[in-house]
Specification:
Layout (H helix, E strand, L loop, with lengths): L3 H4 L7 H7 L8 E5 L6 E7 L3 E2 L4 E2 L5 H4 L22 H6 L9 H4 L4 H4 L9 E2 L12 E2 L4
Parallel strand pairs: 2-5
Antiparallel strand pairs: 1-2, 2-6, 3-4
């Protein structure tokens, strides 16, 4: 029997199905820098102040958008337009008609698999609470998906 992510579009998913699709990598919770002249986006290894790096979960998920003014809530309407999502993002993969990665918790039954295969930010991120604004450019990284 096919699973919901194989038979439904992102728009057809219930809120619970949508939330369960998140692989827990937390890559979307890293601070991004934009070059205002070129509009190029640079990723950093600096995590949002609300992110628990050890669990790769938001410490105040329900209120995140009121606490962090540039927090972007992913939804079926904006998933195509958010260019900074990594190619490994489960929402992006499903939207493109691609399968979930073998390590995804919906396939393995284990939410720690994302960390075990080093597909999350757990091993390398630092909290923005520990980085001075003037030093953030020193934290630019290059994704290798």
């Amino acid at each position: 029997m096919a699973e919901f992510w194989q038979t439904k579009t992102l728009k057809e998913m219930t809120q619970q199905e949508w939330e369960s699709l998140c692989d827990g990598c937390a890559k979307c919770c890293l601070v991004k820098l934009e070059d205002y002249d070129t509009a190029e986006i640079y990723h950093t290894n600096v995590a949002c102040k609300l992110l628990s790096i050890d669990s790769c979960r938001c410490s105040d998920y329900a209120a995140r958008q009121t606490i962090v003014d540039d927090c972007v809530k992913l939804d079926p309407e904006n998933i195509k337009s958010i260019q900074w999502l990594p190619d490994s993002c489960s929402y992006k993969l499903i939207d493109q008609g691609k399968p979930l990665p073998d390590w995804h918790h919906l396939l393995t039954g284990n939410r720690n698999t994302v960390h075990q295969v080093a597909a999350s930010i757990k091993q390398f991120a630092v909290s923005e609470l520990e980085v001075k604004d003037s030093d953030i450019e020193d934290h630019i990284i290059q994704w290798v998906d």
